[in-house]
Design goal:
With 531 residues, the chain is α+β, with helices and mostly antiparallel strands. The protein has 20 helices and ten strands.
Length: 531
Amino acid sequence: MKSRLGYLIIILGWVSFASVLAYEYSHYGFGGLNRFIYPRDFYEFISTLQIAVLPLLFTVIGSIINGRFKLLENLREAEGNYRDLYENAPVGYHSIGADTTVLEVNNTWLQMFGFRREDIVGKVRLIDLVSDKYRESFLSAFQSLKNKGTLENFSYEIRKSDNTYLPVIVNTRAIYNDKGIFLKNQTAVKDNSIPLAYENALKDSAREWRDTFDNMPDGIVLLDKDVIIRKMNKCMVNTLGVSSFKEVIGKKYFEVIYNELEFPADHLIKEVMERLTPISREVFNKRLNRHFLVNITPIFDEQGEIQYFVQTMTDISDIKDREAKLKESRTAFYNILKDVDLAYKELKELQDGLILALAKAVDAKSPWTKNHSELVSRYSVMIGKELGLSVKEIDTLRVAAILHDIGKIGIYDSILYKPGILTIDEYSLIKMHPERGAEIVNHIRQLEGIATIMKYHHERFDGSGYPEGLMGDQIPFFSRIIAVADAYEAMTSDRPYRPVLGKELAMEELNRYAGSQFDPDLVKAFIKSLT
């Protein structure tokens, strides 16, 4: 805003000029005005010039006054802006004298520490607000400031109004008089609590990481791309047998490993560089007499180039020892199993021998039935294999077929091998042999499973058999197999009541009675096995 005084002076100049013109016109008319245009002598020229210059001079003076007032106004505005910036700056400012008395602070500083201006400025020495642990370093830094003129990024703690301490970081410069004597300083004060908290958190994390790293049960070493040792935990130091990590830092890893652990580390590193993938290997150190599991993992930079290698070494000696003992135990167990298997085989052979002897005792009662049980067993096994039965199932079928006629051991030979037609009573006795055989083996625990098979081997597919007249799938599967094998063996062997039929005629008879006396599917399987 322009000054009113400047305007008044300008107006006064022009009013004065207009007044002179008006006076000349009122007394001399246009002749008076002509004197300003055509002066008659030098005196009139000077007089006219003074009057003409008067408004211009007043205009210049008014403009100068206006400019000065504007400059002062701008200075006041700038000073106000500066004061506003100073007082409300994002950092605190203070100024202290040679004895550390507080000379000036801004509003931000007061807000940071909770003081009132009237209670702090000129009344308190800053040294009295500095915490005890920083007081000595503060005085030393303050003396350095007086000598050097500046101090940057100096950290200490200042007591707040609530008697807690705020960590700060300051940048300050000294102000001297014309004789170089220190007058005061100007200091920017930043709240350092959050950065310090972050720094402490990072230090805690680093310490925790280091503690974790050092207390890992496995040896860990960090190598750069040139395979130089950069980091190593305590377990690795102990494994290497060196006094400290500092003893091997910066050394080629291969040199340390060859000298201490004697395993082909260079081969493993080269393999990682070729494959660009982690690798694991078991190694044995003769000097330490220990087994180790070595893992080497590459770490890549943003361009995909290997920047570091991380190697871990796990002592697996105890595991290897347990593994060796387990192998020994396993070998001993296998030997026991072999002995048990041999004993089982011998027992099985004994059992089979007794079973066969028992069957032969029945077959030997007549020359007509010699080897009958063995042949029925052989034919039954042929059917079982054709049907794809398991080894265990075939073994059960074999034993049941050998013993299928064991019930005949209590029947008179005159009835069993009578050449003529049997009476009703005699036939009734014959029909009892399946049940008697089942009763005999039922008392032998190892043969309990075949009792049912033996009991029903004379049942017929159409239900006309004995002892219970079962039909179709009611008859046990293995009993149906033995029925086919028994009939075929009987037809292909001489009997006192008829001559041998022969293989072809016997197969025709089986086909003829398939579906009535025999299971047709089993007849097909048996004939297929014979051809």
